[in-house]
Write a structure and sequence with these properties.
alpha/beta; 8 strands; globular; Thymidate_synth/dCMP_Mease_sf; two-stranded antiparallel sheet; single chain; Thymidylate Synthase, Chain A; 277 residues; 6-stranded mixed sheet; thymidylate synthase activity; cytoplasm; Thymidate_synth/dCMP_Mease_dom
């Protein structure tokens, strides 16, 4: 069982046994049939993985769409766009379509914010020229951008980067995390980002920290949560590795084909979830 599997089961149990619920409260998200999508939840969740010691935050208790997650990261930080047609045509991903604001974009969000403030280039230059600085931050929660257009506010909203003795550590901060649908994808996609940035600036991936302010399970995902808690992982899952092509060093040259997931055998069957929009 991977560390991420243990953390997932423990967090499922913590949420399921908590007394925190939005039932009876006014909530923004709704299911496709128009019903309000309530959650049970816990606040202030923190996880830590040392990538240099093989502690990859990969979940095997269910299939994690790691390739699609990394493609989304390339769309945000390489393409630096909010264009849903680029996401669909270039990467084959349509899961953002439900948040189309009517112009085939998700509004002035994510990649559009990265481009507007030149965030990734500033990060790469800063880590190269002053690696031990304490101001290496990408913040996607820009109030001016949120006010400019409608659209979902960024969930994975900030990364903070610090160097130490040849390693690059990174902390991902999320305001909100749908535990069973997106949490595992967010972890592995931001580890991929950490790996690409580290390679570009001549460092090795170090510690990945993940802070979630509100981790929740939707009321129509309770059965899936129980299934996750009862599952046993496949053998040798502790040997799962995400490998980045050693021949490339430039951040903007990496593609999904430069990533390989070794020894990944998630538990079957895969689970299905009704989306809350």
């Amino acid at each position: 069982m991977t560390i991420a599997d243990k953390n997932l089961q423990n967090l499922c149990n913590e949420i399921m046994t908590s007394n925190n619920s939005t039932e009876g409260e006014k909530v923004r998200p709704k299911y496709a049939d128009g019903s309000p999508s309530h959650t049970i939840f816990v606040n202030q969740v923190f996880e830590k993985y040392d990538l240099s010691k093989g502690e990859l935050p990969i979940v095997t208790l269910r299939q994690t769409a790691w390739k699609s997650g990394i493609k989304e990261i390339l769309w945000i930080y390489q393409d630096q766009t909010n264009d849903l047609d680029i996401l669909k045509d270039k990467y084959g991903i349509t899961w953002w379509d439900e948040w189309d604001i009517g112009d085939r974009t998700i509004g002035q969000r994510y990649g559009a914010t990265v481009k507007r403030y030149d965030l990734i280039n500033k990060l790469l230059d800063g880590l190269k020229n002053q690696p031990y600085g304490r101001r290496h931050i990408i913040n996607l929660y820009q109030e001016a951008d949120l006010a400019e257009t409608k659209g979902l506010h960024p969930c994975a909203m900030e990364t903070q980067w610090t160097a130490r003795d040849g390693y690059l550590d990174m902390t991902l901060i999320q305001r909100s995390s749908d535990l069973l649908v997106a949490n595992a994808i967010n972890k592995i996609q931001y580890v991929a980002l950490q790996m690409m940035v580290a390679r570009h600036v001549g460092l090795e991936p170090g510690v990945f920290c993940h802070y979630v302010n509100n981790a929740h399970i939707y009321d129509r995902h309770i059965d899936q949560a129980k299934e996750i808690m009862s599952r046993k992982p496949q053998e040798n899952d502790e040997s799962v590795r995400l490998v980045l092509n050693p021949e490339k060093t430039n951040f903007y040259d990496f593609t999904i084909d430069d990533f390989t997931m070794e020894n990944y055998n998630p538990v079957k069957p895969n689970l299905k979830f009704e989306m809350a929009i």
